[in-house]
């Protein structure tokens, strides 16, 4: 790994994590994730956001630092925008290598440094608008951005280069390899990162969309030349692109999203699937794009991403033991936890002896403020009449999406 110059005093150093581990212990990172840290050099050296000891991340960062002639021991200030352990897990080891470095974070951040790492000495709380002068005209300003996505979060702003360091905000999944800047990736690669950005947003940030919007408003007046997040691409050519993407994703929390449908389905013996096929015929007849995900076969992380960006959902599941099919109950619960509000939804499903999924489902979605089309349920295999009704429901849902 080498360091990447953002300006003559600002550098990105990153570690690529390729692993079968789950991010936060929940989310797939089958295409990896990057942990980005940053160096700002004046007379003093500041280091922004650390890593955890994960797939040799500290060694990768150490190599990148060495490429610009800096050792961990030479760092004067460690700025922690956010204390989640992907950015702080190596703090105790770092402190052992560099006992003199001052650690800066928000007041809440300093409390977490104490509770997570039992470190109190040499830790200083900074407030919104505070500045850190590194000498030689290199000044950092701290901007509190609470709940993006933890309460202690802040951004760091380097006016001389126009670089904003927002930690998790404006980040994405996906390993970077030997490039970091937006203008060094092909259109196809950028499209991959865009998909990984919405997945990251839906998985990590979506519950805090209101705070994302507040944070975007708060930095709007800055002359931003570069967005330097702690995961994913560094946006130096078109920083507005990632700001706009995040603003758009945040807006989905309030209502209609893209004109597409996320079809999420489970089937035990093919009866619910037969009904779903009729719904899909209806959607296809209207020409509305859709994504399709089988539960529990597919990773919830990807389902959540497509559901977040779709205006409408089809939820197809059989009744299981007089209630919802259990893996689908988990997905519905995840939708509640991630504030998947404002969707238009068609729920369908087969039952054996008697239904039950409908009742539990309707109680479960109550807080989500969805607009529900009439639920369609049938006993066993769908009749010709059921299939005709289901196709009609698919068309109706697609027409709503098309004309919204
Ligand atoms: Fe990348 Fe919330 O940590």
Report on this structure:
The protein has 404 residues and is α/β, with parallel strands linked by helices. The protein folds into two domains: 4-251, Ribonuclease Z/Hydroxyacylglutathione hydrolase-like (Metallo-beta-lactamase, Chain A); 258-402, Rossmann fold, CATH 3.40.50. It is built from eleven helices and 20 strands. The protein has a seven-stranded mixed β-sheet with strand order 1-2-3-4-5-6-7. Strands 13, 14, 15, 18, 19 and 20 form a six-stranded parallel β-sheet that branches. Helix 5 packs antiparallel against helix 6 (239-251) and helix 7 crosses helix 11 (384-403). It is elongated, with a radius of gyration of 24 Å. Bound molecules: MU-OXO-diiron (FEO).
Main attributes of the structure:
404 residues; alpha/beta; Metallo-beta-lactamase, Chain A; Rossmann fold; 2 domains; 7-stranded mixed β-sheet; 6-stranded parallel β-sheet; 11 helices; binds MU-OXO-diiron
